[in-house]
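agent> fetching stored inputs for the pyridoxal-5'-phosphate docking request
agent> found them:
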Amino acid sequence: MNHITLDPATPEEWREFSTLAHTMLDDMLTHLASLPGKPAWQPVPPHVQTALKEPLPQEGEGAEAVYKQFKENVLPYPNGNLHPRFWGWVQGTGTPLGMMADMLASGMNPHLAGFNQAPTLVEHQVVEWLAELMGMPAGTSGLMASSGTVANIIGLTVARNAKAGWNVREEGLQTFSEAHKSLTMYCSAETHSWVQRGVEILGLGNKALCRIPVDAAYRMNIEELRTTIREDRANGFQPICVIGTAGTVNTGATDDLTALADLCTEEGLWFHVDGAFGAIAAISDVLRPIVKGMERADSIGFDLHKWLYLPFECACVLVRDAELHEKTFNMAPSYIAPMERGVIAGGLPFAGRGFDLTRGFKALKAWMSLKAHGVNTFARLIEQNVEQAKHLERLVNAHADLEICAPVPMNIVCFRYHPAKSASHQTIEQLNALNQEILLRLQESGRAVVSSTVLQGQYVLRVAIVNQRSTMADFDELVRAVVEIGTAVAV
Ligand SMILES: Cc1ncc(COP(=O)(O)O)c(C=O)c1O
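agent> prediction call returned; pasting C-alpha cells
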C-alpha cells in the first residue's frame, strides 16, 4: 500500500496549499474590516439550510471546493457577535491578533497537559499574569479553561473536596449522604445558571444550592446570607462555600465581595467568585473598586473570551491554595509518570488542575494579546465600554418613550420601550409583548442585536457591552432603531 498523509505531498502541493491558505487569511481579514457595513445578524436562508444538510462525504472533494462552500454558506451567517452593534447575551467579539494566535496554536498543536516544552511555560506565565491582575498572591494556582462555566465548576470542585471534611475523591458522596449532613453552597438569586450545572455535576444536587435574595441593586443580601448559614448549621446542614458574583449576567451588579470575604472567614467557608466578565474590571484603576474583595477569594473563575475580547474559547480558573487545587485533580498512572529528563520532565501540571488530559494551546492568544496590546489598552477598552453604557443610559433617560429598568453599575443596560402617552392604560403583559416584538424586529432588521431578560416581571431589553468594536454612534443608532420600531409596533 502506498504511503498516504493529510499533508501536501510535494513541494508543488505545498505551494498550492499556501496559495489557498493565504486566500483564506485575506478573505477573513477583509470580512473583519467590512463588518460595520454588514447586518449585525441575518437569518440562514432556506437554500443554505438545505446545502448544510448533506450525506456523509465518503470521498473528499478537496480543500478549495470546501472552502468555497464555507465562504458562501457559513461565513455570512454567524450569530453576529463580531459586529459593532451586537450586544446580545454576554459574548465577546474576538480580535484579529487573537484569530492569528489561534491559527498559530493550531498549527503548532502542542499537547498542553504539561510536558517539557515552551508552550507549557507560556501557560504558566499567563496564569501568573492573570493572578497578578486579579490581585491574587504569588503562588496562586491556575488553569486556562474552555469557558467560565468550566472554570467556575473547577473552582467549586476544589471547594467541595477541601471543605467536605472527608476524602471525597476516595469515598464519593454516597457514604456520607445522610440528610442531616448535607453539604450546602450559597449564591445570590441573580447568579448565572452555570451554578446549577455545577452543583448537579458535583453530585450535591440543586437542593444543596441556597439562593439568597438580592437587594434593590441586585446584590446579594448579606444579612440574609449570614442568618441562613447560621440557621442551616443549627438544622444539621454543612455550609461549605459562598459564591459571589462580579458582574451578574442580568444587570452587571457585583456583590459586596469584601463583606462576603469577611463572612467566609468568620464562618470558615470557601469563597468562590464568579467573575465571568466582571472580574476583568480588576485590570482598570478606575473600575477596580467595583470588584474590591475579589482578591481575597479562595477561587475565581472568569473568561477572557468575554470582556478581554479574545476569540472563543478562553477562560481561566485561579485557586489560591495550589496544594488543594492539585490534591483535587492529580492522577499518576504509570504511562504518564514524570521523569527527571526528556519530554515529560516537569510532569503534566495542567492535567492535574482540571478535567481535561489533552488540552489545546489557549494560553497563546492570551500571551500574545497581553504582550502585543498591553494591559493598559485592555483597561482603556473596558473603561470605554462602561462609558458607552453610561451614554446609553443617558440617551434612554432623555427619551420620553424609553425607561431604564435597573441600575447601570458597569457595562449592562436594561431598558424598555414604554410609550409615554399610553403609560396609564398599558398592562404589564401588553408592555412585555410590545418589547418582545421590538427585540425580535430589531434583531431581524440587522440594525443591532440585543437580548432580553425579565426583571421583577418586566420584560426588558438587555444591552451587554463586551464589544471592542462599538462606537458611541452605534448606541445612538440603537436608540433610534428601538424608538422607530417601537412607534411602528405600538400603533
Ligand atoms: C456572570 C456569568 N457567569 C458565568 C457565565 C458562563 O460563562 P461561559 O459562557 O463562558 O460558560 C456567564 C455567561 O454569560 C456569565 O455572564
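agent> quick read of the result: Residues 375-398 form the longest helix (24 residues).
agent> awaiting further instructions
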